[in-house]
Write a sequence for this structure.
């Protein structure tokens, strides 16, 4: 979890900010920002808007929307493969947080 929250500590990347997530951060870390803020269900459109706002390049060059959606989709696939999220069987535009992770985040070791 720490690597997703603070990628610079593990990647040793000089372009990443010290304690926050920026456009130069890995896509999965950018997606994880909204994941941490949400409760048990995550609306995919709201999540994409959050991802898009962080992923905008500070230089002013805009990526095409299709490229941004593809990056977002890959980040979601990585989170799904790691067991952080799963599809909601009733709503196609929503994903659920995996239950074990929610419990793990709530019960922090002392």
């Amino acid at each position: 979890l720490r690597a997703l929250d603070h990628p610079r500590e593990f990647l040793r990347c000089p372009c990443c900010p010290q304690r926050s997530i920026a456009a130069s951060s890995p896509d999965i870390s950018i997606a994880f920002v909204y994941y941490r803020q949400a409760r048990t269900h995550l609306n995919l459109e709201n999540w994409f808007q959050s991802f898009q706002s962080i992923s905008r390049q500070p230089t002013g060059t805009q990526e095409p929307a299709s490229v941004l959606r593809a990056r977002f989709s890959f980040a979601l696939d990585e989170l799904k493969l790691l067991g952080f999220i799963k599809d909601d069987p009733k709503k196609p535009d929503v994903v659920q947080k995996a239950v074990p992770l929610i419990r793990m985040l709530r019960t922090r070791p002392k």
About this structure: The mean pLDDT is 76.
